[in-house]
Amino acid sequence: MPSPGIAAKSTPKPAVTEPQTRVWDIFVRVFHWSLVLAVAIAAASGLMLESRILLLHISAGLAAAALVAARIVWGFTGTTHARFADFVPSGAAIRAHLAGGTRHLGHNPLGALMVLALFALVLGLAVSGLLVLGGIDKSGPFAPFVSFGAGSVVLGLHEVLAYGVLALVAMHLAGVVFESERSHENLTRSMLTGAKAKRPGDHESRPRPAHPLLAAAVIVALAAGAWAFNSAQAARPVPGLPVATLDPGYKAACSECHIAYNPSLLPAASWSGIMAGLKDHFGENAGLPAAEVEAITNWLVAHASETADTKPAYRIAARITQPPYSITGSRSWKRLHDDIPDALFASRAVGSRSNCAACHADAETGRFSPFAIDLPKESLK
Amino acid sequence: MRRLAFTLAALCAAAPAAFAQDANDTSAAALISKFAAEAGITADAETGKAFFLATQSGGGADTPSCSSCHTADPKATGMARTGKEIAPMALSVNPKRFTDTAFVDKWFGRNCDSVLGRECTATEKANVLAYFASI
Known about the structure:
By secondary structure, chain A is an all-alpha fold.
């Protein structure tokens, strides 16, 4: 927090026309306002907690991180006030500024700390977000390495960092208002036009030339590296996925009346319970010959939710331990579907809550990826 | 995404067609004769129709009638309570019906219990099959 000392040493109101100088280059300005947009979209879509806009959230977050990465490159190759060397403050410089130091054309020491903190948090959010995506949704570059449990822990960290960014944004806006008042200038307009009034007594910066071609080359190299890393990760096997090929006997017998539920959707003991009660199977006789019941039960038990490291296995299946072992009757299933209108379940295209595959294209794989959800449009009035 | 596509393709390749009725060891006519002989009656399509449409008691609360799932029109595609489609029962639109003895026995066994709470009699089976064969 700026001390009252800064305000006390406020400079006198300047003359109407002052000589202008270019402070923020076009890269810095486009970066700044693009980051505003990306963070706003990522924050809004993240706070909505809506799986159908998860792709937007991830895209905005990765765009913000890519912008910051490019800005860091520009911090070593850009124009005078874009350089870290121009604004990263020493402890002494921070103390001097708090005591009411000279006006900075570029970032002042407190503003510089804000820049560094925002960069760190945006990058931290992108990395933690990808870890969550890998562990919980088994997607993205970290899917081969992150367990569901680890992904869940990182999700807590991701949320803390996200609220941290919101707090920093609030402090940044307060700082801009305060500093604009203190030095009688419109800092927001300067971030649009790039120009600031040059006044006697301003903090002196050492002029540095920009190297845009070098910056472009490094940014392209970083992008190529990120792409290569992602491709290499996508080729690796993902451990803990549910059984991929359904037993033909199970599928033939059980998918006559309903979709072939992946065995990772119920615990082993619940499958045994269901198979022991086929004569009254959710209100209907679904009896099978004893030998068939035994073979199917053995296969279901061998591939039950205990063997899968997926979100449905932990968040839904693991909690269904009591008769009638209904997936759609469970509290966790209901909570995840509480925004779906009854009319959609009753529609011709869906027909029943048990018809997962009507909306989840990957239902039989047991993965239930947020990217595989497609609500039938004809039913949405 | 490619992994998912491969998985789905493998699933499709491994999956036998749902509602497989491929034994081809009988026919509607043969089954009607067999059940009618068992019951000592002459199969009657009108009686079978009434049985098919009637609201029964003794079965499950969600399945009071054959037509609950098969619809009142045997030529139409029905829908199980799960949302799964049921191929039409009328022989004229679904000639594969009643060509697999094990399939017919399995589903009479299940559905008579669900709707009536008991097995169907040979009389009921002969009549309802005669109805499906007649339209």
